[in-house]
Amino acid sequence: MARKYFGTDGVRGLVGAGPITPEFVMRLGYAAGNVLAKGSAAKGGRPTVLIGKDTRISGYMLEAALEAGFSAAGVDVMLAGPMPTPAIAYLTRALRLQAGVVISASHNPFQDNGIKFFSEHGTKLPDAVELEIEEMIDQPMGCVASEKLGRATRLRDAQGRYIEFCKGTFPNELDLRGLKIVVDCAHGAAYNIAPHVFHELGAEVIELGTKPDGFNINAGVGATAPKAMAQAVVEHEADLGIALDGDADRLIMCDASGRLYNGDELLYVMVRARMATGPVAGAVGTLMTNMALEVAFKEMGIGFARAKVGDRYVLEMMQERGWLFGGEGSGHLLALDKHTTGDGIVSALQVLSALKRGNQSLEACCSGLQLYPQTLINVRVAPGFKWNDHAAVVAEKEAVEAELGERGRVLIRPSGTEPLVRVMVEAKEPGLAENMARRIAARFEV
Asked: Keyword Amino-acid biosynthesis on this protein (predicted)?
Protein backbone atom coordinates (compact mmCIF):
# COMPACT_ATOMS: atom_id res chain seq x y z
CA MET A 1 0.00 0.00 0.00
CA ALA A 2 1.45 3.38 -1.03
CA ARG A 3 2.09 6.05 1.59
CA LYS A 4 0.04 9.21 1.32
CA TYR A 5 1.63 11.37 4.02
CA PHE A 6 4.62 9.54 5.51
CA GLY A 7 7.94 9.68 3.70
CA THR A 8 11.18 7.94 4.61
CA ASP A 9 11.56 10.21 7.64
CA GLY A 10 8.04 10.99 8.82
CA VAL A 11 5.79 13.76 7.52
CA ARG A 12 7.66 16.84 6.29
CA GLY A 13 6.97 20.02 4.33
CA LEU A 14 6.67 23.79 4.24
CA VAL A 15 4.96 25.20 7.34
CA GLY A 16 1.50 26.51 6.50
CA ALA A 17 1.16 24.33 3.41
CA GLY A 18 -0.34 20.86 3.55
CA PRO A 19 0.39 18.68 5.35
CA ILE A 20 2.29 20.86 7.84
CA THR A 21 -0.70 22.84 9.08
CA PRO A 22 -2.13 23.03 12.62
CA GLU A 23 -5.35 21.31 11.55
CA PHE A 24 -3.59 18.38 9.87
CA VAL A 25 -1.07 17.94 12.69
CA MET A 26 -3.92 17.83 15.24
CA ARG A 27 -5.62 15.10 13.19
CA LEU A 28 -2.29 13.30 12.91
CA GLY A 29 -1.96 13.35 16.69
CA TYR A 30 -5.53 12.09 17.08
CA ALA A 31 -5.00 9.28 14.55
CA ALA A 32 -1.67 8.23 16.06
CA GLY A 33 -3.18 8.41 19.53
CA ASN A 34 -5.98 6.04 18.57
CA VAL A 35 -3.58 3.54 17.02
CA LEU A 36 -1.28 3.68 20.04
CA ALA A 37 -4.20 3.50 22.49
CA LYS A 38 -5.26 0.16 21.02
CA GLY A 39 -1.85 -1.34 21.68
CA SER A 40 -1.72 0.09 25.19
CA ALA A 41 -5.22 -1.18 26.04
CA ALA A 42 -4.10 -4.69 25.10
CA LYS A 43 -1.39 -4.37 27.76
CA GLY A 44 -3.79 -2.95 30.32
CA GLY A 45 -2.38 0.56 30.66
CA ARG A 46 -3.00 4.19 29.74
CA PRO A 47 -0.88 5.30 26.76
CA THR A 48 1.69 8.08 27.13
CA VAL A 49 3.79 9.67 24.41
CA LEU A 50 6.82 11.96 24.62
CA ILE A 51 7.02 15.02 22.35
CA GLY A 52 10.29 16.78 21.58
CA LYS A 53 11.18 19.42 19.00
CA ASP A 54 14.03 21.37 17.51
CA THR A 55 14.37 25.15 17.67
CA ARG A 56 12.18 26.28 14.75
CA ILE A 57 9.64 29.00 15.53
CA SER A 58 6.88 26.75 14.16
CA GLY A 59 7.62 24.14 16.80
CA TYR A 60 5.45 25.92 19.36
CA MET A 61 2.40 25.84 17.08
CA LEU A 62 2.83 22.24 15.96
CA GLU A 63 3.53 21.04 19.50
CA ALA A 64 0.24 22.52 20.69
CA ALA A 65 -1.63 20.93 17.76
CA LEU A 66 -0.13 17.50 18.42
CA GLU A 67 -0.89 17.80 22.13
CA ALA A 68 -4.54 18.60 21.38
CA GLY A 69 -4.85 15.64 19.03
CA PHE A 70 -3.35 13.18 21.47
CA SER A 71 -5.47 14.52 24.33
CA ALA A 72 -8.66 14.14 22.27
CA ALA A 73 -7.69 10.48 21.70
CA GLY A 74 -7.24 9.92 25.44
CA VAL A 75 -3.43 9.79 25.32
CA ASP A 76 -1.26 11.47 27.95
CA VAL A 77 1.60 13.64 26.72
CA MET A 78 5.01 14.41 28.19
CA LEU A 79 6.73 17.51 26.79
CA ALA A 80 10.53 17.49 26.55
CA GLY A 81 11.02 20.84 24.79
CA PRO A 82 13.97 21.32 22.40
CA MET A 83 15.78 17.98 22.25
CA PRO A 84 17.80 16.09 19.61
CA THR A 85 15.88 13.48 17.65
CA PRO A 86 17.98 10.61 19.07
CA ALA A 87 17.32 11.93 22.58
CA ILE A 88 13.60 11.37 22.12
CA ALA A 89 14.30 7.85 20.87
CA TYR A 90 16.36 7.15 24.00
CA LEU A 91 13.96 8.74 26.50
CA THR A 92 10.93 6.98 25.00
CA ARG A 93 12.63 3.64 25.57
CA ALA A 94 14.08 4.54 28.97
CA LEU A 95 10.74 5.78 30.33
CA ARG A 96 8.82 2.78 28.92
CA LEU A 97 6.44 5.04 26.96
CA GLN A 98 4.25 3.96 24.07
CA ALA A 99 5.84 6.29 21.50
CA GLY A 100 8.05 9.30 20.98
CA VAL A 101 7.32 12.16 18.59
CA VAL A 102 9.84 14.64 17.20
CA ILE A 103 8.85 17.94 15.60
CA SER A 104 11.75 18.68 13.26
CA ALA A 105 12.76 19.00 9.62
CA SER A 106 16.33 17.98 10.44
CA HIS A 107 18.79 19.77 8.11
CA ASN A 108 16.13 21.81 6.26
CA PRO A 109 15.76 25.61 6.67
CA PHE A 110 13.48 27.03 9.37
CA GLN A 111 10.51 27.49 7.01
CA ASP A 112 10.11 23.70 6.87
CA ASN A 113 9.07 21.37 9.64
CA GLY A 114 8.01 17.78 10.10
CA ILE A 115 6.71 15.11 12.44
CA LYS A 116 8.40 11.75 12.98
CA PHE A 117 7.61 8.95 15.37
CA PHE A 118 9.58 6.44 17.41
CA SER A 119 8.23 3.19 18.76
CA GLU A 120 8.39 2.11 22.40
CA HIS A 121 11.71 0.43 21.53
CA GLY A 122 13.31 3.70 20.38
CA THR A 123 13.18 2.72 16.70
CA LYS A 124 11.21 4.24 13.85
CA LEU A 125 7.62 3.02 13.62
CA PRO A 126 7.08 -0.10 11.50
CA ASP A 127 5.54 0.52 8.07
CA ALA A 128 2.36 -1.29 9.10
CA VAL A 129 1.79 1.10 12.02
CA GLU A 130 2.42 4.17 9.87
CA LEU A 131 -0.06 2.89 7.30
CA GLU A 132 -2.64 2.30 10.03
CA ILE A 133 -2.17 5.90 11.21
CA GLU A 134 -2.54 7.16 7.62
CA GLU A 135 -5.83 5.30 7.24
CA MET A 136 -7.22 7.08 10.30
CA ILE A 137 -6.03 10.60 9.42
CA ASP A 138 -8.70 11.12 6.79
CA GLN A 139 -11.46 9.77 9.03
CA PRO A 140 -13.68 12.25 10.95
CA MET A 141 -11.99 13.41 14.14
CA GLY A 142 -13.79 12.75 17.40
CA CYS A 143 -13.03 13.19 21.08
CA VAL A 144 -13.14 10.88 24.08
CA ALA A 145 -15.35 11.68 27.07
CA SER A 146 -14.03 14.46 29.31
CA GLU A 147 -13.02 12.08 32.06
CA LYS A 148 -10.84 10.18 29.57
CA LEU A 149 -9.00 13.15 28.03
CA GLY A 150 -5.24 13.01 28.02
CA ARG A 151 -3.12 15.17 30.32
CA ALA A 152 0.07 17.04 29.45
CA THR A 153 3.07 17.31 31.77
CA ARG A 154 6.58 18.67 31.38
CA LEU A 155 9.38 16.07 31.58
CA ARG A 156 11.81 17.23 34.22
CA ASP A 157 15.53 17.26 33.48
CA ALA A 158 15.19 15.74 30.01
CA GLN A 159 18.48 17.39 29.03
CA GLY A 160 20.36 16.03 32.04
CA ARG A 161 19.10 12.50 31.46
CA TYR A 162 20.24 12.53 27.85
CA ILE A 163 23.61 14.10 28.65
CA GLU A 164 24.31 11.24 31.05
CA PHE A 165 23.22 8.69 28.46
CA CYS A 166 25.62 10.14 25.87
CA LYS A 167 28.51 10.19 28.33
CA GLY A 168 27.75 6.56 29.16
CA THR A 169 28.58 5.52 25.57
CA PHE A 170 32.17 6.75 26.06
CA PRO A 171 34.62 4.32 27.75
CA ASN A 172 34.90 4.84 31.52
CA GLU A 173 38.67 4.56 31.46
CA LEU A 174 39.07 7.39 28.93
CA ASP A 175 38.48 11.13 29.02
CA LEU A 176 38.84 14.13 26.72
CA ARG A 177 41.32 16.11 28.81
CA GLY A 178 43.87 17.97 26.76
CA LEU A 179 41.58 18.37 23.74
CA LYS A 180 40.21 21.68 22.51
CA ILE A 181 37.09 20.99 20.44
CA VAL A 182 34.82 23.29 18.43
CA VAL A 183 31.24 22.03 18.83
CA ASP A 184 28.82 23.39 16.21
CA CYS A 185 25.16 22.74 17.05
CA ALA A 186 23.64 24.46 13.97
CA HIS A 187 21.50 26.66 16.28
CA GLY A 188 19.46 23.49 16.64
CA ALA A 189 18.18 21.01 19.16
CA ALA A 190 21.58 20.13 20.67
CA TYR A 191 22.51 23.73 21.51
CA ASN A 192 22.19 23.21 25.27
CA ILE A 193 23.30 19.56 25.32
CA ALA A 194 26.28 18.77 23.08
CA PRO A 195 28.68 21.36 24.61
CA HIS A 196 27.95 19.96 28.09
CA VAL A 197 28.62 16.36 27.00
CA PHE A 198 32.10 17.09 25.68
CA HIS A 199 32.95 19.54 28.47
CA GLU A 200 31.92 17.13 31.22
CA LEU A 201 34.18 14.48 29.66
CA GLY A 202 37.11 16.86 30.05
CA ALA A 203 37.42 18.76 26.76
CA GLU A 204 37.83 22.49 26.38
CA VAL A 205 34.79 23.41 24.28
CA ILE A 206 34.46 26.29 21.84
CA GLU A 207 30.75 26.73 21.12
CA LEU A 208 29.37 27.54 17.68
CA GLY A 209 25.74 27.59 16.57
CA THR A 210 24.37 27.59 20.12
CA LYS A 211 22.21 30.71 19.98
CA PRO A 212 18.93 29.69 18.33
CA ASP A 213 16.34 32.40 17.69
CA GLY A 214 13.70 30.31 15.93
CA PHE A 215 14.85 31.38 12.46
CA ASN A 216 18.57 30.56 12.23
CA ILE A 217 18.60 26.76 12.47
CA ASN A 218 21.10 25.30 9.95
CA ALA A 219 21.75 28.81 8.57
CA GLY A 220 25.41 28.85 7.53
CA VAL A 221 26.47 26.50 10.33
CA GLY A 222 26.20 22.84 11.30
CA ALA A 223 26.76 19.59 9.42
CA THR A 224 25.28 20.95 6.19
CA ALA A 225 27.58 23.99 6.25
CA PRO A 226 30.71 22.63 7.98
CA LYS A 227 33.12 25.26 6.66
CA ALA A 228 32.11 27.52 9.56
CA MET A 229 33.24 24.84 12.01
CA ALA A 230 36.48 24.26 10.10
CA GLN A 231 37.24 27.97 10.09
CA ALA A 232 36.58 28.21 13.83
CA VAL A 233 38.92 25.28 14.48
CA VAL A 234 41.75 27.03 12.66
CA GLU A 235 41.03 30.42 14.26
CA HIS A 236 40.93 28.98 17.80
CA GLU A 237 43.82 26.59 17.15
CA ALA A 238 41.58 23.74 18.26
CA ASP A 239 42.38 20.05 17.89
CA LEU A 240 39.08 18.97 16.34
CA GLY A 241 35.70 20.18 15.17
CA ILE A 242 32.31 18.51 15.56
CA ALA A 243 29.35 19.71 13.49
CA LEU A 244 25.80 18.49 14.05
CA ASP A 245 22.68 19.30 12.05
CA GLY A 246 19.45 20.86 13.33
CA ASP A 247 18.16 17.75 15.08
CA ALA A 248 21.63 16.35 15.89
CA ASP A 249 21.39 13.02 14.09
CA ARG A 250 24.12 13.92 11.56
CA LEU A 251 27.84 14.35 12.17
CA ILE A 252 30.68 15.92 10.19
CA MET A 253 34.13 16.42 11.77
CA CYS A 254 37.36 18.19 10.98
CA ASP A 255 40.94 18.03 12.22
CA ALA A 256 43.25 20.80 13.43
CA SER A 257 44.06 21.88 9.87
CA GLY A 258 40.36 22.33 9.06
CA ARG A 259 40.26 19.27 6.79
CA LEU A 260 36.70 17.90 6.75
CA TYR A 261 35.79 14.22 7.27
CA ASN A 262 32.44 12.95 6.01
CA GLY A 263 30.26 10.08 7.15
CA ASP A 264 32.05 7.45 5.05
CA GLU A 265 35.39 8.32 6.65
CA LEU A 266 33.98 8.48 10.17
CA LEU A 267 32.26 5.10 9.72
CA TYR A 268 35.64 3.69 8.69
CA VAL A 269 37.23 5.06 11.88
CA MET A 270 34.47 3.61 14.07
CA VAL A 271 34.57 0.14 12.50
CA ARG A 272 38.37 -0.03 12.39
CA ALA A 273 38.57 0.87 16.08
CA ARG A 274 35.93 -1.69 17.04
CA MET A 275 37.93 -4.43 15.31
CA ALA A 276 40.60 -3.96 17.96
CA THR A 277 38.20 -5.36 20.55
CA GLY A 278 36.70 -8.17 18.45
CA PRO A 279 35.49 -9.20 15.01
CA VAL A 280 33.06 -7.04 13.04
CA ALA A 281 30.75 -9.05 10.78
CA GLY A 282 29.82 -6.25 8.43
CA ALA A 283 28.67 -2.70 7.81
CA VAL A 284 25.91 -1.14 5.75
CA GLY A 285 26.27 1.89 3.47
CA THR A 286 24.00 3.25 0.75
CA LEU A 287 24.02 3.46 -3.02
CA MET A 288 25.97 6.72 -2.60
CA THR A 289 28.66 5.37 -0.24
CA ASN A 290 32.14 5.89 -1.69
CA MET A 291 33.53 2.75 -3.33
CA ALA A 292 36.82 3.19 -1.48
CA LEU A 293 35.05 2.30 1.78
CA GLU A 294 33.68 -0.91 0.27
CA VAL A 295 37.17 -1.85 -0.97
CA ALA A 296 38.76 -1.05 2.41
CA PHE A 297 36.24 -3.15 4.32
CA LYS A 298 36.77 -6.04 1.90
CA GLU A 299 40.52 -5.90 2.52
CA MET A 300 39.81 -5.93 6.28
CA GLY A 301 37.59 -9.00 5.94
CA ILE A 302 34.43 -7.07 6.78
CA GLY A 303 31.17 -7.62 4.91
CA PHE A 304 29.59 -4.66 3.19
CA ALA A 305 26.12 -4.09 1.76
CA ARG A 306 24.40 -1.12 0.15
CA ALA A 307 20.90 0.02 1.10
CA LYS A 308 18.73 2.63 -0.57
CA VAL A 309 19.60 6.23 0.33
CA GLY A 310 18.14 7.13 3.73
CA ASP A 311 19.11 6.17 7.29
CA ARG A 312 15.78 4.31 7.63
CA TYR A 313 16.86 1.84 4.94
CA VAL A 314 20.37 1.55 6.36
CA LEU A 315 18.90 0.59 9.74
CA GLU A 316 16.50 -1.93 8.19
CA MET A 317 19.35 -3.70 6.37
CA MET A 318 21.52 -3.70 9.50
CA GLN A 319 18.71 -5.37 11.42
CA GLU A 320 18.12 -7.92 8.66
CA ARG A 321 21.78 -8.94 8.63
CA GLY A 322 22.40 -8.63 12.36
CA TRP A 323 25.17 -6.07 11.83
CA LEU A 324 25.95 -3.26 14.27
CA PHE A 325 27.43 -0.54 12.07
CA GLY A 326 26.15 1.54 9.19
CA GLY A 327 25.97 5.04 7.83
CA GLU A 328 25.77 7.55 5.02
CA GLY A 329 28.31 9.99 3.65
CA SER A 330 26.00 12.81 4.76
CA GLY A 331 26.84 11.97 8.37
CA HIS A 332 24.05 9.66 9.54
CA LEU A 333 26.00 7.04 11.50
CA LEU A 334 24.64 4.08 13.44
CA ALA A 335 26.25 1.93 16.12
CA LEU A 336 23.47 -0.32 17.38
CA ASP A 337 25.46 -1.48 20.39
CA LYS A 338 25.31 2.14 21.62
CA HIS A 339 21.92 3.43 20.45
CA THR A 340 18.83 2.32 18.53
CA THR A 341 19.08 5.14 16.00
CA GLY A 342 21.58 7.50 14.38
CA ASP A 343 23.02 9.96 16.89
CA GLY A 344 25.53 12.69 16.05
CA ILE A 345 26.80 13.15 19.61
CA VAL A 346 27.17 9.43 20.30
CA SER A 347 28.89 8.89 16.94
CA ALA A 348 31.34 11.71 17.68
CA LEU A 349 32.15 10.05 21.01
CA GLN A 350 32.88 6.75 19.24
CA VAL A 351 35.31 8.52 16.90
CA LEU A 352 36.95 10.35 19.83
CA SER A 353 37.35 7.11 21.78
CA ALA A 354 39.13 5.63 18.74
CA LEU A 355 41.52 8.60 18.64
CA LYS A 356 42.17 8.39 22.37
CA ARG A 357 42.73 4.64 22.45
CA GLY A 358 45.17 4.74 19.56
CA ASN A 359 46.71 8.06 20.57
CA GLN A 360 46.30 9.08 16.93
CA SER A 361 45.03 12.05 15.00
CA LEU A 362 41.90 11.87 12.87
CA GLU A 363 44.09 12.02 9.79
CA ALA A 364 46.15 9.05 10.97
CA CYS A 365 43.03 7.01 11.76
CA CYS A 366 41.79 7.61 8.19
CA SER A 367 45.14 6.95 6.52
CA GLY A 368 43.99 3.54 5.27
CA LEU A 369 41.06 5.05 3.38
CA GLN A 370 41.57 7.24 0.35
CA LEU A 371 38.16 8.22 -1.03
CA TYR A 372 37.74 7.88 -4.79
CA PRO A 373 37.05 11.10 -6.72
CA GLN A 374 33.31 11.30 -7.32
CA THR A 375 31.46 13.30 -9.97
CA LEU A 376 27.71 13.86 -9.81
CA ILE A 377 25.85 15.42 -12.75
CA ASN A 378 22.14 16.25 -12.60
CA VAL A 379 20.49 15.82 -16.00
CA ARG A 380 17.09 17.46 -16.48
CA VAL A 381 14.63 15.14 -18.22
CA ALA A 382 10.95 15.07 -19.15
CA PRO A 383 8.57 13.99 -16.37
CA GLY A 384 8.22 10.22 -16.34
CA PHE A 385 11.46 9.67 -18.26
CA LYS A 386 12.94 6.20 -17.67
CA TRP A 387 16.65 6.20 -18.32
CA ASN A 388 16.93 2.39 -18.46
CA ASP A 389 14.63 2.38 -21.53
CA HIS A 390 17.01 4.75 -23.35
CA ALA A 391 19.29 2.53 -25.45
CA ALA A 392 22.08 5.11 -25.90
CA VAL A 393 22.33 5.79 -22.15
CA VAL A 394 22.30 2.09 -21.25
CA ALA A 395 24.97 1.33 -23.85
CA GLU A 396 27.25 4.15 -22.65
CA LYS A 397 26.79 3.09 -19.02
CA GLU A 398 27.80 -0.47 -19.87
CA ALA A 399 30.80 0.75 -21.87
CA VAL A 400 31.99 2.95 -18.99
CA GLU A 401 31.56 0.12 -16.47
CA ALA A 402 33.57 -2.21 -18.69
CA GLU A 403 36.39 0.34 -18.92
CA LEU A 404 36.39 1.00 -15.19
CA GLY A 405 36.37 -2.63 -14.11
CA GLU A 406 37.25 -2.69 -10.41
CA ARG A 407 38.71 0.84 -10.54
CA GLY A 408 35.33 2.55 -10.06
CA ARG A 409 31.57 2.34 -10.42
CA VAL A 410 28.57 4.02 -12.02
CA LEU A 411 25.25 4.90 -10.41
CA ILE A 412 22.29 6.39 -12.28
CA ARG A 413 19.18 7.16 -10.28
CA PRO A 414 16.15 9.43 -10.73
CA SER A 415 15.44 12.23 -8.28
CA GLY A 416 12.47 11.56 -6.04
CA THR A 417 11.35 15.20 -6.06
CA GLU A 418 12.35 16.75 -9.42
CA PRO A 419 12.42 15.73 -13.13
CA LEU A 420 16.13 14.98 -12.87
CA VAL A 421 18.33 11.95 -13.32
CA ARG A 422 21.51 11.89 -11.25
CA VAL A 423 24.56 10.44 -12.98
CA MET A 424 27.33 9.55 -10.55
CA VAL A 425 30.71 8.06 -11.42
CA GLU A 426 33.53 7.16 -9.03
CA ALA A 427 37.00 6.31 -10.25
CA LYS A 428 40.33 5.75 -8.58
CA GLU A 429 42.24 7.99 -10.98
CA PRO A 430 41.67 11.78 -10.77
CA GLY A 431 39.82 13.18 -13.74
CA LEU A 432 38.50 9.82 -14.89
CA ALA A 433 35.25 10.11 -12.91
CA GLU A 434 34.43 13.51 -14.41
CA ASN A 435 35.20 12.46 -17.97
CA MET A 436 33.10 9.32 -17.76
CA ALA A 437 30.18 11.03 -16.02
CA ARG A 438 30.09 13.61 -18.81
CA ARG A 439 30.16 10.84 -21.41
CA ILE A 440 27.05 9.22 -19.92
CA ALA A 441 25.25 12.53 -19.34
CA ALA A 442 25.81 13.51 -22.98
CA ARG A 443 23.95 10.42 -24.15
CA PHE A 444 20.72 11.71 -22.59
CA GLU A 445 20.68 14.35 -25.33
CA VAL A 446 20.91 11.83 -28.19
From this structure: no
Is 249 assigned to a binding site? Answer: yes
Residue 34: which of 140, 124, 113 has the closest Cα? 140
The mean pLDDT value for 102-129 works out to 92
- What domains can be seen in the chain, in order of their start residue? 11-156 (3.40.120.10), 161-170+178-258 (3.40.120.10), 263-365 (3.40.120.10), 374-445 (3.30.310.50)
Q: Dump pLDDT digits (tens) for 168-216.
A: 999 999 999 999 999 999 999 999 999 999 999 999 999 999 999 999 9
| pLDDT band, very low/low/confident/very high, at 41 (cuts 50, 70, 90) | low
Which one of 58, 71, 104, 106 is the catalytic residue?
A: 106
Side chain identity at residue 163, one-letter code: I
Name 170's Cβ contacts closer than 8 Å, sequence gap at least 6: 201, 349, 352, 353
Do 203 and 348 form a contact (C-beta atoms < 8 A)? no
Query: Per the annotation, does 106 bind a ligand?
Result: yes
Catalytic residue check, 71: no
| pTM as predicted | 0.93
Is 104 assigned a ligand-binding role in the annotation?
Answer: no
Residues 6+ apart with CB under 8 A from 343: 84, 86, 166, 248, 249, 333
Q: Are 241 and 229 in contact (CB under 8 A)?
A: yes
